Fold this sequence. Notes:
- Two copies of one chain form a homodimer.
- Chain A is of the alpha+beta class.
- The first copy, chain A, has one domain: S-adenosylmethionine decarboxylase.
- Chain A has eight helices and 16 strands.
- The N terminus of chain A is likely disordered.
- Chains A and B meet through helix 4, strand 7 and strand 15 of A and helix 4, strand 7 and strand 15 of B.
- Strand 15 of chain A pairs antiparallel with strand 15 of chain B, so a sheet runs across the interface.
- Chains A, B: GO terms for molecular function: adenosylmethionine decarboxylase activity.
Amino acid sequence: MTSNSFCEFFEGTEKLMEIWFDKYQDNPNDCDLRHIQRSAWDTLLSFVNCKIISFKRNEHMDAYVLSESSLFVSKNRIIIKTCGSTTLLRCLEPLLYLVKQVAGFDEVVDIFYSRKNFMRPELQDGSHRTFENEVEALDNLFEDGAAYCMGRMNSDCWYLYTLNSPLIESKSFKQTPDQTFEIIMQNLDHKVMNIFTRAVSSSGKEATQKSGIDKLLPGMTIDDFLFDPCGYSMNGLIKGGYYVTIHITPEPHCSYVSFETNCPHTAYPDLVNRLLKVFIPGKFLMTICANELSTSFNAHKEFRDVEFQGFDRKELQVCRFKNYDITYGLYAKPNS
Amino acid sequence: MTSNSFCEFFEGTEKLMEIWFDKYQDNPNDCDLRHIQRSAWDTLLSFVNCKIISFKRNEHMDAYVLSESSLFVSKNRIIIKTCGSTTLLRCLEPLLYLVKQVAGFDEVVDIFYSRKNFMRPELQDGSHRTFENEVEALDNLFEDGAAYCMGRMNSDCWYLYTLNSPLIESKSFKQTPDQTFEIIMQNLDHKVMNIFTRAVSSSGKEATQKSGIDKLLPGMTIDDFLFDPCGYSMNGLIKGGYYVTIHITPEPHCSYVSFETNCPHTAYPDLVNRLLKVFIPGKFLMTICANELSTSFNAHKEFRDVEFQGFDRKELQVCRFKNYDITYGLYAKPNS
């Protein structure tokens, strides 16, 4: 710890779960995950050990800022991302029940549960301490789930659990273009991180503007929150059904920033460069998950020869799954 | 088990270790791993729990058939592959010592330790029961070793440990074109497997010819061995410093065939098709490891759109490492 250290250790590393739903037999037009009431989410999130602290919506999506990260609810897709020592998988079974009872969907079309390796796994609840434990819990709920590890199992890596089975032969489910870009940055610049403390910024809005987050992508409706004494969360909604979410743990000994969006890009390296300029990390891990209909489907080709100034490429991996291609990259400054 | 079952369970799944050596300070011209005497290998292999049962050599390589798989010794590279419940990693420390004392090399340039997931890990010695255990042992001997898992961690997968660091700045080490192709086949045709039993074939040579192994690649000098009552091993040497090795566990309830070669190919799918025709597996896992100088460096592109008749592609992954690209594919018949 340095003289800058203002908090105890915090595990910024999020558990991220995205689930797509469908109705197997009937027309799913009447089904909608947004029929689930706020009070039901409150109850559900009590299993996870986190709370709703802010809310915004547009015609496509309900976006909740949580005490630990974010929740996005669309008609047929839920994205829930929680950090710290939350117990995300504990909400899965009640969530599936709630979705069936209230939203009307009876089929999980696809699930993506992912996370980076924890900095301090020993501080997690048993259900999340190892990926093996998480896989066991997921295997109990899903048939033919596939568990992957990209990157180095004995160092920086990224775990993914997904169904990776052919899309269920449903009368109604139509695949639409879909892509998710996530970047996880660590060992960040102290001055930048200080922006995300109450000592330097008085509000989420001030931190958003001072850091330049508001200019990262055009057209965002922003819901930002600055925690006391430090920490920052932001949900951004963009027309067309797109979201952005940023979560920041600024403590110098465990600094962590995640940025995630489903906004399609045809030039991801440009976006990466903008993010590196704003946050100045010592290392970063990047994943792009895109289906065949996405304009980002061939994103991995862009990264094959690209270099990021000052960073060594430690790893580049591409997986072809049934419905998605995933690109994984790890980059680090020589002394990071 | 079927009426065809003639033996107890045998773990065909091999542990495979390839190590490249160099001399850090001086000219390595006088160094040669083939200075290591047969008696020293005998002692070393006692740590592994296997024995030499046959030997052939050419100007490039010494090739040993072992009671459990094979050992290839070139001037600056050792390849050792052992199956069953052998304890391969137990020979590593004494091997490094022996190499220094007898062959004169003092530097490990690169190491590749790999294996498929075991069918029955609980039957392995503690040192090999989990990949985590293996990684721990390797991490104790090497700095900056990288551990990977390709494929599904909760099903069929392939583990790899390698240094993945920039080539050591050695005065002498020159990278040469290098590629390794390995295919691991399971759930094989019973009639084909019967060829590799004493009940059907009287010798290794007969099994080699009956099966068509002798025609798989041109120009092989073959050293083959048929075990009693069943099981088959083969080393092939090809001019130019190339090897082939095939190991067969024919028991119907645990049938397993591995084929490995460093022979460069520009059309791997053709080779795969020849192998599928000879062995008729229900599923197969394939890896290609090639450096930038290899004509096989872009092999992964060949597999992007290729299909193998009767097989579903379960997985295709590509990793770019510092010095090597690795392509991983898993294919299975619908009911296998």
